[in-house]
Design goal:
The chain is mostly helical. It has helices at 4-12, 21-36, 43-57, 72-83, 109-119, 128-138.
Length: 139
C-alpha cells in the first residue's frame, strides 16, 4: 500500500479521480430530483432525461434578442424632460411671499422645507401633504 499509492499518484497525476466525488454529486442530484418531482412513478427516467438534457445543452448559449430603439431622441432628451420635477422659480414669487403667489400644491418637499425655514418654522415633518398644509397655514 505504501509503495502503490505514490506510484499511482505519479502515473495518474493524483488520486482525485479515484475519490468517487462525481458519483456522490450525481447521487445528491438524483435524490433532490426525486424529492422535488411529483412524478415518482418513473424517477429513474426523469433523472436520465435531466442528465441527458444537461449534457447536450452545456455547450449551447442563448442568442441575444434583437432590439432596436424606436425613438432615439427619447433616450437623450425626452426622458429627462418627462422625469423632471416641476419647480417654482424665485422670479415667479413676489418679494413679499404672499400666499397668492406661491403655488403650494405644485412645489416639492425641498422647496417647501426651504420656504418654511425662511418663515422661521422649525419642523421634523417629512410627509408632503403635511408639509403643504403647514406651509399654507403659515402663509
Amino acid at each position: 500500500m505504501v509503495f502503490h499509492i505514490p506510484k499511482l499518484c505519479r502515473i495518474h497525476l493524483g488520486i482525485k479521480q479515484f475519490s468517487a466525488q462525481g458519483m456522490e454529486k450525481l447521487n445528491d442530484i438524483i435524490k433532490s430530483n426525486h424529492k422535488q418531482h411529483s412524478n415518482k412513478n418513473e424517477p429513474c427516467a426523469s433523472v436520465l432525461q435531466t442528465s441527458w438534457r444537461q449534457n447536450h445543452l452545456v455547450d449551447q448559449k442563448r442568442s441575444q434578442r434583437p432590439y432596436q430603439k424606436r425613438k432615439v431622441d427619447y433616450w437623450s432628451d425626452e426622458i429627462f424632460k418627462k422625469r423632471m420635477r416641476p419647480s417654482v422659480e424665485s422670479s415667479e414669487m413676489s418679494p413679499e411671499g404672499s400666499s397668492n403667489d406661491v403655488p403650494v400644491d405644485s412645489i416639492g418637499i425641498d422647496e417647501i422645507e426651504m420656504k418654511l425655514k425662511e418663515l422661521g418654522v422649525l419642523t421634523k415633518v417629512r410627509s408632503l401633504e403635511k408639509l403643504r398644509k403647514l406651509l399654507k397655514d403659515h402663509l
